[in-house]
Amino acid sequence: MLRVAETGDTAQRIEAVHKRYDIDPKQVRLVRAPYRICPLGAHIDHQLGTVTAMAIDRAVWLAFAPTPADRRVRLTSRSFAGDVDFALDAVPDRVDGDWGNFPRGAVRALQAAGHDLRCGIVGVTDGGLAEGGLSSSAAIGVAYLLALQAANGLVVAADDNIRLDQAIENGYLGLRNGILDPAAILLSRRDQLTVIDCKSMTHEVVPAGTALLPFRVLIAFSGLRQALVSTDYNRRVGECQQAATALLAASGRVGTQARLGHITQDEYDAHAGVLTGPPSRRAAHVFGEMARVRDGVAAWRRGDTAELGRLMTASGHSSIHNYECGAPPLIDLYDILRTTDGVYGARFSGAGFRGCCVALVAPDAAVDAVASVRRRYARARPELAAEAPVFLCDSDDGARLVAQ
Ligand code: GLA
User: What is the pTM of this model?
Assistant: First the structure.
């Protein structure tokens, strides 16, 4: 059963660890790792562009306790079936579709980066929005990283945690994504826009211009659930790299592992004609999206809500027509959202192959907007709408260890 609300409160989370693993409640600690939205910057993180993000006030939780006498990781989940149990010294390989991939990937990433994990953990997780689009993968990956670090007395900078989470996703899970998700989850601050330069790995949290109209974040799930690694996500990344390699050669430069972020706008303008087929459309999306991010950050800074919303909706359009990542039910949702009263702008929240769409909506129209989106999506996709929550949320701070 799909849950929208986080399950239980702090005391229940601590009690769950106590009951399951017979741990003194005083030893239990908590990590809260929020989900994220990306108002602008679709599919340009892996091309080393600049992206925008906010953490939201829905999160993955991990209640855990260190187990110094036992070099194992033992976990249960209140959202997923089955237990996870493995030794720090013999971390098993990935198993498709298994939630244990995230803690195993976190341990492997920490060990590969030279961190000496002497101490395992026991823990119980919860968080019910794993269908995609809000970056549940990075949220839970970051939660395990922070818990393992706390249990082992390791102090790791946010930048390193971004790289470690990327190692879980790129290395252990096999998804060729960029740093948008862990950066958003680790760096965001309530009411600010997190602007992440994926090439230099620098970021800025930007306050909105005073003229920006108040907004709420509307999340609309499609009911489509699928691991991102089994979609066309990696194929699209490859098509972007084909475009980058061709543009680099046309510009008289040589290089391997080219990304579109290595090509200047002038080089693209001069040589876009060498591209054909999918690489041509992917490059058109990426360069268009880089410009929308620049314009969108400027609109946020000066408080131009209408322009910010217009750019989000334009980003959604380009994702559908140039990046061609929109699954039909998500395109239906996008069309419903952008034509709903009170919506400033809407787009796919994550990759667009499954999961959810996001909209910024005027607070006084928000409740009616949710009802209207539910009604219209139920008409458009009755087979999916029953398990496709639509809800409102707000921006929030990034991941942290929470005091009991
Ligand atoms: C997924 C990936 C991110 C990013 C988005 C699309 O959420 O995990 O790295 O590429 O898709 O912008």
Answer: 0.95
Ligand 1, atom 7, lies closest to the CA of 350
pLDDT digits (tens, 9 = 90+) for 93-152: 999 989 999 999 999 999 999 999 999 999 999 876 667 899 999 999 999 999 999 999
Helices 328-338 & 363-380, crossing angle to 10 degrees?
Answer: 140
CB-based burial of residue 374 (10 Å sphere; 0-12 exposed, 13-18 middle, 19+ buried)?
A: middle
Give the binding-site residues of ligand 1, using a 6 Å CB cut-off: 38, 42-43, 45-46, 135, 177-178, 180-181, 350-351
Which residue among 131, 180, 286 has the greatest number of ligand 1 atoms within 8 angstroms of its CB, and so is best to mutate? 180
CB 46 within 8 A of CB 233: no
- Pick the closest to residue 130 from 139, 119, 122 (CA basis): 139
Pocket residue to mutate for ligand 1, from 35, 36, 43, most atoms within 8 A of Cβ: 43
Ligand 1 centre distance from Cα of residue 367 (Å): 28
Distance 350 CA to ligand 1 centre (A): 5
Is the pLDDT at 168 greater than 60? The verdict is yes
CA-wise closest residue to 134 among 373, 374, 351: 351
Which of the following is catalytic: 126, 165, 181, 304? 181
Reported as a pLDDT band with limits 50, 70 and 90, residue 219 is very high
Q: How far is CA 77 from the centre of its chain?
A: 20
Asked if 181 is an active-site residue, the reply is: yes
User: What span, in angstroms and rounded, lies between the C-alpha atoms of 271 and 287?
Assistant: 13
Q: How many CB atoms lie within 10 A of CB 24?
A: 9
Sign of the torsion formed by the C-alpha atoms of 20, 22, 25 and 28: negative
Span from the CA of 41 to the centroid of ligand 1 (angstroms): 9
- Bridge partners, residue 54, by sequence: 37
Q: Which atom of ligand 1 lies at the shortest distance from residue 175's CA?
A: 8
- Locate 325 and state its tokens: 């990542």
Find the 135 Cα to ligand 1 centroid distance in Å.
Answer: 8
Bridge partner list, 31:
62, 401
pLDDT band at 255 (very low <50, low <70, confident <90, very high): confident
